[in-house]
Amino acid sequence: SGFNSGSSCKRCDFEMDLCEAFHELNSQPGWIRRNGQSGMGPPYSDHSGNHSAYFLSLSPEIRSSSATLRTNVFLPTNEEHLCQITFHYWISQTGGKLMVGLQKQSENTIANIWQDSGELQNQWRANSIIINSTEKYEVIFSSTMETQRQGQTVAIDDITFSEGC
């Protein structure tokens, strides 16, 4: 069950918009699509170091400083095809948090399956999550920032979904 990075993967690099794994960005409140040259502070490049390439980050306008990015509904996984999600993320040092949750169709609660918080980070990091679900599900990226000072943010880039998603 090696990770297949071929054309069967859906890759969301945010260069044009969201990819087909997500609904429209305007139904994903709190996130803004921008690049490192936007004048909004760090990160000043995407995860590959490109200053003009796009990523998502917390919108500086939001008072509550929380944001949710929700996928479309995925079909159940099976043994041959687990769903592997790989992504890059940036968290400012103080008070930022990024969580990935799983919402199964029969449940109205979101089960937290991964999280990280911004202790001495201020750098792009990569992570992979494997999801195994016997029923239809959505994946939710949610971010919070305790105090949003200038240059404090959480960002996401290059989300890849394997064939099993």
UniProtKB/TrEMBL annotation:
GO cellular component, one term: membrane
Pfam families: MAM
Domain MAM: 10-165
SUPFAM superfamilies assigned: Concanavalin A-like lectins/glucanases
Gene3D superfamilies, alphabetized: 2.60.120.200
PANTHER family for this protein: APICAL ENDOSOMAL GLYCOPROTEIN PRECURSOR, MAM DOMAIN-CONTAINING PROTEIN
Name this protein carries in UniProt: MALR1 protein
